Amino acid sequence: MNPSPAIRFVYFDLGNVLVRFDPERGCRNLAEWAGVTPAAVDKAIWASGLEEDFECGRVAPAAFAQRVAEALRVPVGRLDEQGQPLLDLVSNMFTPLAEMLPVIERLREAGVGLGILSNTCHAHWDWISRQGWPVCSGWSTADVLSYEVGQMKPAAEIYAVAQRRAGVPAEQIFFTDDRPENVAGALAAGWQAEVFRGAEELSTQLQRILPSRSRDFRNSPNV
Questions:
Q1: Which keywords annotate this record (predicted)?
Q2: 139 vs 26: CA distance, rounded Å
Q3: Strand 9-12 to strand 192-195: parallel, antiparallel, or no bridges (unpaired)?
Q4: Does 75 share its domain with 113?
């Protein structure tokens, strides 16, 4: 059996890989502001399919906020021109997974290119970016975001865009995601990929594919 090609670029999923997210918290935040139930918020955003449209870039942030406000019967006058505070309220549901930072730092030391490949919307990405969490800021050279690309994982097109931005052959890209279907999409694109099950297991996987440049990968501090 031939060994896997050397990895030159690693893409991380965002949610449940670099940050933990709690949609119920977002629903509660918005429900309290709007004077409705969390179930009403869930119906207006997720069950309606509006969030998917937002994550595919088919709905602008202000228009998304207006449609949610209308569905919840909140006076549109409570929103500013950018759709705030609604967008921040529903986006305030993320917390950083700090245990991933040593993994990222060791990859940087190994000279591997790094990026983020995520199904996300403008509001969530903007909110996370403003937090300045080291685990998801200051190191990525290629942020491939569904709302900008107009496609969501596991569609083949988003992996093609990500490969072009990485600037390396498909077989030299590694991807980790908590959703098996997105890992399957990466494998179909010719990438190396693994389902994310925590920083420690990821370190073991990376030790296997980066042996020559990082033999002590699993000994990274805090991993």
A1: Hydrolase
A2: 27
A3: unpaired
A4: no
